Structures are given as C-alpha cells and as structure tokens.
Task: structure prediction
Amino acid sequence: MFASNSRYINLADGVYTDAAGRQISYKLLRLTPGAPTLQVHSAVQQDRLDLLAFTYYRDPEQFWRICDANLALRPDDVLEPGVEIQIPLVQR
Result:
C-alpha cells in the first residue's frame, strides 16, 4: 500500500469498527520525529521541496523530511523567500 521509502510504512495499523460492524483498517497517528540538521538552506523564489529533496537526498519523494524538520504542516510553509530551511540528516 505504501512505497518502501514512505513516512507511513512503519506505522502500526489500527482497526475501526463502524455501526454496521464493518472493520476499516487505518494507520495510527504519526508523530513528527526530531532530526539532526545537516545544514541550513536559505529559500529563494524558485525553490520547490521536491527539487531540494533531490539536491540533498537524490530522491524528490523525500520532501517530507524537510517538512518534518521545519515542523511544517503544509509544504509551502517552508518555501517563503528568505526563510532559513533546516535540511535534516536521513535517519536509517
């Protein structure tokens, strides 16, 4: 269901039983982990999270690591020009 590099892959599953008795599987809440900073990137107008993720991790789908390190709920929150963006080390 999730790609092997997904932030949700290792989360435990929960099961919800509705009023009709149907069981619906879901993932439990994901807490944002702390991550050591690799470096700081000063955002410029044309920055995109997928491009930054490719630059630092060689994988554009890892953009969520940058969001987590900056406690951003919305990806666009970290892309305001002039904002100092924390680029975390990859935890394996």
